[in-house]
From TrEMBL:
This is Very-long-chain (3R)-3-hydroxyacyl-CoA dehydratase. It comes from the Eukaryota. The lineage of its organism: Eukaryota, Fungi, Dikarya, Ascomycota, Pezizomycotina. One of its GO terms (biological process) is fatty acid elongation. The chain crosses the membrane at residues 7-27, 101-123, 135-153, 165-184. It comes from Aspergillus heteromorphus CBS 117.55. It catalyses: a very-long-chain (3R)-3-hydroxyacyl-CoA = a very-long-chain (2E)-enoyl-CoA + H2O.
Amino acid sequence: MSLKNPYLLIYNTLNALLWLRILLSILTSPAQPPETTYTTLEPWTRWTQTLAVLEILHAASGLTRSPVFTTFTQIFARSVQVWAIDFAFADLTRVSPAYKYMLFAWSIADTIRYCYFVVLIAGVPVPGVLRWLRYSLFLFLYPIGISSEWWLMFKATVSTDSWPVKALFVFFLGLYVPGSFMMYSYMVKQRRKTLGAT
């Protein structure tokens, strides 16, 4: 008996619950100052996002049908964000409203994405509203998330005294334009393919 489906079901359910916890924390305290959001959610978000590194292995091994390069690009960019920016430049990140906007966009997108995968793997029909949310909300969530990530990295770039770190961050900031275009274009094609057939 293959363990592929039970494993993927557990993995995606766990991720859906982890991101839902982050989303509910943001939605239930909208007036919370950025510093409180950071203190409450930064470790939780960092480790939740780190768990997603497994998705690169899933794609590379053929466990999922996700394109390896696209998966790597998104997971790598977010990993750099949570470790090299949000965690390493805590004094800057904790006071920026951009951190909360970023988490808002990430948590909505990923809660829906992982729920969608759970339903698919469980083998039950995907509700139309879930399919629509999965392939439509990115249209405004991606710009919110990407611009917030870019701003936080820009602030870290300006503040660091290390020239090698500054040069690396400038390089990453430059990659946001082609990288964002690639991710957005991929999702637009997926949206057309998925929603155009329903």
